[in-house]
UniProtKB/TrEMBL annotation, chain A:
Pfam families xref list: eIF3h_C (PF19445), JAB (PF01398)
Name of protein: Eukaryotic translation initiation factor 3 subunit H
Listed InterPro entries: eIF3h (IPR027524), eIF3h_C (IPR045810), JAMM/MPN+_dom (IPR000555), JAMM_MPN+_peptidase_M67A (IPR050242), MPN (IPR037518)
Biased composition (Basic and acidic residues): 250-261
MPN domain boundaries: 8-141
GO molecular function, one term: mRNA binding
Purpose of the protein: Component of the eukaryotic translation initiation factor 3 (eIF-3) complex, which is involved in protein synthesis of a specialized repertoire of mRNAs and, together with other initiation factors, stimulates binding of mRNA and methionyl-tRNAi to the 40S ribosome. The eIF-3 complex specifically targets and initiates translation of a subset of mRNAs involved in cell proliferation.
Species this protein is from: Capsicum annuum (Capsicum pepper)
Region (Disordered): 244-277
Database matches in HAMAP family: eIF3h
GO BP term, example: translational initiation
Biological classification of the source: Eukaryota, Viridiplantae, Streptophyta, Embryophyta, Tracheophyta
UniProtKB/TrEMBL annotation, chain B:
Superkingdom of this protein's organism: Eukaryota
InterPro entries: eIF3f (IPR027531), EIF3F/CSN6-like_C (IPR024969), JAMM/MPN+_dom (IPR000555), MPN (IPR037518)
Biological processes per GO annotation: embryo development ending in seed dormancy; formation of cytoplasmic translation initiation complex; pollen germination; response to sucrose; translational initiation
Protein's UniProt name: Eukaryotic translation initiation factor 3 subunit F
Keyword Protein biosynthesis: yes
Origin species: Capsicum annuum (Capsicum pepper)
GO cellular component terms given for this protein: eukaryotic 43S preinitiation complex; eukaryotic 48S preinitiation complex; eukaryotic translation initiation factor 3 complex, eIF3m
UniProt lineage: Eukaryota, Viridiplantae, Streptophyta, Embryophyta, Tracheophyta
Length: 320, 285
């Protein structure tokens, strides 16, 4: 069994490549493959390459696989590590917690024991934040997902809640000495950078608005899920009442039969529809939506915090 | 190269490619490839991808290394590899075409002309970029060249490499932050508020600098510079003129909005954790 993944080590090259790819195609969502090495407790991501824009056509899908192989072969020739260690994808306003992400993850997990997903958010970057995240699915969640059993009982048994689906892996950045030498040489110490301008932008309202909009949508979805559960529980209790009634009837019948000296009838009847167990709706969706909501809340908190500082700064400047 | 004094020497000046803009990714990629070069190789060679902007500036956006072998006066480039990689890159981004080639090392070397000729067949007027990974002069020099044909009459004599200015501004890299780029290892990416703090500190330092400069000028310690003075007055004038009441109202409205959002967000989170507790506690069956 492998040891626990403690962090992922990214080269700046990878980060720049991801940013370039995601930014160029924004707002379309793009993905790409991460290449690197698995060294003990850290996963070193040393290179990556983008995937062409995805299309639904099957023929093109096969071509995509070819592209991937070709690219790996080419990169190997110039001595790039050609082990797949995961993939990256862009997201808009942090709305990445979907069933598709989990499915992709499970697909990757089949082939590679340890993989990460790096998520980059171009919309957040416009505010001077490096919105880069490395995620993996938690082990307990994966086990559960494999058995595809998301009933309340099972979740309680595993003690799994929505916070435990994704695990965030801290990203460390490492550069080769050559690159850092070049950067120090080429880029003089400028007092102001692009980031500073973007961070000091006062208009965050559109971003917050979108966030709240998404939040409201998620809330609607969540209440839909709740209704599903209510419906299920109502049906369940009705069924239980029916079962009880049936049992009562059967028992009194059996008493009569006993009195008459006949064999009692069995107390269960599998052929009766009221004994058919009702399928419990999966909690996966509501878990994901909850995750998403928590994410939006965090983003709002972060941006609002920044805005506070900005507003007070403005005030101080103005008073001067 | 131009040795003859008797016949007229013709320089065919290049019409385009007056300057080039290099994206940081290109330099990073070249450095990475150089670090990973094969044992016996002294330098690496590769293709530059990008586009020509409407004003004639060449925008170098991407690059990939091409394996090659080099002996005394021969250079063999893996052309198949070059084409494979090109088609792969174009699948992702069809807008990026070949704009030139790069090699590591200081300045142009003998074999460069041959390779340049090859790339001239791939694209018109390619750019040759050299990245001095060996720090020959004790500095990191990145240079761009275009070739100018020398001819006597109709006869092609040679090609001369002419240096062109390169724009190495790295706006994209700034997004990551130079604190991260300049060191060899960083443990943690800065989050929202830490970045904000750094920005504010820089702003404060700048304001202090300006104060000091203005004081110095007023007291006659530093000769005045009208240009700087105009910049400062422009900056001060760019603050909108608002009455204190209006400004207070504006700031307070902003604060109220943010507070409301914060409140909403925390309310939602509380609700979620409640639901979470109830869900796990509920034993309806």
């Amino acid at each position: 069994m492998w040891s626990k993944l403690k962090g992922s080590l990214c080269g700046c090259l990878v980060i720049l490549k991801i940013i370039k790819h995601c930014q160029e195609f924004s707002p379309a969502l793009v993905t790409g493959q991460l290449l690197g090495l698995d060294v003990g407790s850290v996963l070193e991501v040393t290179n990556c390459f983008p995937f062409p824009a995805r299309e639904e056509d099957e023929e093109i899908e096969a071509e995509g696989a070819n592209y991937q192989l070709e690219m790996m072969r080419c990169l190997r020739e110039v001595n790039v590590d050609n082990n797949t260690v995961g993939w990256y994808q862009s997201t808009l306003f942090g709305s990445f917690q979907t069933v598709e992400l989990i499915e992709t993850f499970m697909n990757y997990q089949e082939n590679i024991k340890r993989c990460v997903c790096i998520i980059y958010d171009p919309s957040r970057s416009n505010q001077g934040v490096l919105a880069l995240k490395a995620l993996k699915l938690s082990d307990s969640f994966m086990e559960l997902y494999k058995s595809n059993n998301f009933t309340g009982e099972k979740l309680r048994e595993k003690n799994l809640s929505w916070v435990d689906i994704f695990e965030e892996i801290p990203i460390k950045v490492s550069n080769s000495a050559l690159i850092s030498a070049f950067m120090t040489e080429l880029e003089p110490d400028t007092p102001v950078t692009q980031c500073d301008y973007e961070r000091l932008q006062l208009s965050t309202n559109p971003y917050l608005e979108r966030n709240v909009e998404f939040l409201i949508e998620c809330m609607d979805d969540l209440s839909m899920e709740q209704q599903k559960f209510q419906f299920y529980y109502r049906n369940l209790s009705r069924q239980q009442a029916q079962q009880q009634a049936w049992l009562q009837k059967r028992r009194s019948e059996n008493m009569n039969r006993k009195a008459a000296g006949e064999e009692p009838l069995p107390e269960e009847d599998p052929s009766n529809p009221i004994f058919k167990p009702l399928p419990e709706p999966s909690r996966l969706d509501s878990f994901l939506i909850t995750n998403q909501i928590a994410n939006y809340c965090n983003q709002i908190n972060g941006v609002a915090g920044q805005s506070f500082s900005r507003l007070y700064l403005m005030k101080a400047l103005h008073e001067n | 190269m131009a040795s003859s004094d008797h016949t007229i020497l013709q320089f065919a000046p290049s019409s385009t490619a007056l300057s080039a803009k290099v994206h940081p990714l290109v330099i990073f990629n070249i450095c990475d490839c150089y670090v990973r070069r094969p044992d016996q190789a002294d330098r690496i060679i590769g293709t530059l991808l990008g586009s020509v902007l409407p004003d004639g500036t060449v925008d170098i956006r991407n690059s990939y290394a091409v394996p090659h072998s080099e002996s005394q006066d021969q250079v063999a480039l893996d052309i198949d590899y070059h084409h494979n990689m090109l088609s792969s890159h174009q699948k992702v981004n069809p807008k990026e075409v070949i704009v030139g080639w790069f090699s590591t090392g200081f300045g142009v070397t003998g074999g460069s002309a041959l390779i340049h000729e090859f790339f001239s067949r791939e694209t018109t007027n390619p750019i040759h970029m050299t990245v001095d990974t060996g720090f020959t002069n004790g500095e990191a020099s990145v240079k761009g060249f275009v070739s100018v044909h020398l001819s006597i009459g109709d006869q092609q004599l040679a090609a001369q490499f002419q240096e062109i200015p390169l724009d190495l501004r790295m706006v994209e890299a700034e997004r990551i932050g130079f604190d991260i780029l300049k060191t060899t290892a960083v443990d943690k990416l800065p989050n929202d508020l830490e970045g904000m703090e750094a920005s504010m500190q820089r702003l404060l330092a700048l304001i202090d600098d300006i104060y000091k400069y203005v004081d110095d000028v007023v007291e006659g310690r530093v000769p005045q510079d009208n240009k700087i003075g105009r910049f400062i007055s422009d900056t001060v004038a760019s603050l909108p003129k608002l009455s204190p009441q209006d400004f207070d109202k504006l700031v307070n409205d902003g604060l109220q909005d943010q507070l409301l959002l914060l409140y909403l967000a925390s309310l939602t989170r509380t609700q979620l954790s409640f639901a979470e507790k109830l869900n796990t506690a509920a034993q309806i069956l």
